[in-house]
Amino acid sequence: MQKLLIVDSHCLFADGVRFLIEYSTDHTVVGVLHTGREVIPFLLQHDIDVLLLDIDLPDMSGLELTRTIRTFYPATNVLALTTLTNPQSVNLAIEAGAMGYCPKQAGRNELFAAIRAVGTGHLYLPPSLVQQLRKPAAEKITQDLTDRETEVIQLIVDGHTTKTIADKLFLSTRTVETHRKNIYRKLRIHTNIELARYAQVNKII
User: Fold this and answer.
1) For labeling, which of 20, 67, 116, 170 is most exposed (least CB within 10 Å)?
2) Does CATH number 1.10.10.10 belong to domain 134-201?
3) pLDDT tens column, 29-56
4) For the chain, how far is it from start to end, CA to CA, in angstroms?
5) Other Cβ atoms within 10 Å of 84 Cβ, number
6) CATH topology of domain 3-126
7) Short-list 21, 28, 20, 23, CA closest to 1
8) Parallel, antiparallel, or unpaired: how do β-strands 77-82 and 100-103 relate?
């Protein structure tokens, strides 16, 4: 059972999501907030597993809030909720530290799948966005990756930082960064969202 916080400026939408979660899952919605400025004080008082965050908040940048949460509350995984489904918006959210991206147009089963994935520390992208982001070149380049590079990909996509990857694999941070650069070069990609797409397409995650 996960403890959830919903942050969305649209009251009806937020209440609807809360009802769906509480009626159809065993998760607990600890609170519903409607502004970004309420989030940090709330997190000081409550342990939250998954934060469903509208990244288009009117009072502050949802992306900046995501970065703050990622830095100071690493145990809280952010699931970005938005009406935006273009690749640039997805990339910005993931690069800011969100562990998942779920369009508000999604059905409830897709929302529940996103919550399950993010709640267990796995990056989630909906299938529709994976198809939209797919590049044939990235699908075919597998034979050049070493076993170690594949391990690094799995950990990056799971949301680990360079330091935690280094600790888990008993490597220096410089070595991890070298692996990351080599992976990006071999796959001809430039961002973690492209890496996540590659990992999903090739069933690395």
Assistant:
1) 170
2) yes
3) 999 999 999 999 999 999 999 999 999 8
4) 22
5) 15
6) Rossmann fold (3.40.50)
7) 28
8) parallel
